[in-house]
Amino acid sequence: MLTRLRNPLLALIVLFYLTGFLTAPATAGMVGALASNPDAAKIKGEELSRIQRALETEIVKSQLESYGLTPEETRERLQGLSDEQIHLMAQASDRILAGGDGGAVVVAILVIILLVLLILYVQNKKIVVK
Q: Measured between alpha carbons, how far is 53 from 60 in angstroms, rounded to an integer?
């Protein structure tokens, strides 16, 4: 009796395992939202101004200066970012400007610093700490 039920029971367990634990949640997003939007330049300008306000805060400014970046170099690199990078930095800078809790501000500052370092790495620039 047990051997006769073993195969269907095993098949049922495997079926539940595969459907219950190995299914990925669906993700969705806007495809080409900025490209198809006629106000894309306006949105990009607003995001650039939000990033610029965040870069003018004392904490971020001092951190960038410690890496040897002048405000002019920062503005030049900001102009060379893609739309997606600008959007990500604008979201991070909103968290800095909002204040929020201390942990979120630190994480947002670290994200901005990492993005700046990534941009430096992509452009084959070296940071020398003396």
A: 10
Task: Output phi, psi for 25, to 5 deg.
Answer: -70, 150
* Residue type at position 45: G
Where the chain has pLDDT below 70, the residues are 1-6, 21-38, 96-105
Backbone angles phi, psi at 112, to 5 degrees: -65, -45
Instruction: From 51, 109, 39, select the one nearest 78 (Cα to Cα).
Output: 51
Q: Which region holds residue 126: left if phi is over 0, alpha if psi is between -120 and 50, else beta? A: beta
Mean pLDDT of the chain, nearest integer: 75
Tokens 């595969």, residue? 18
Structure-block tokens of residue 3: 């051997």
Gap between the Cα atoms of 16 and 18, Å rounded = 6
Residues 6+ apart with CB under 8 A from 65: none
Residue 61 and residue 90: Cα distance in Å, rounded? Answer: 16
pLDDT of residue 103: 61
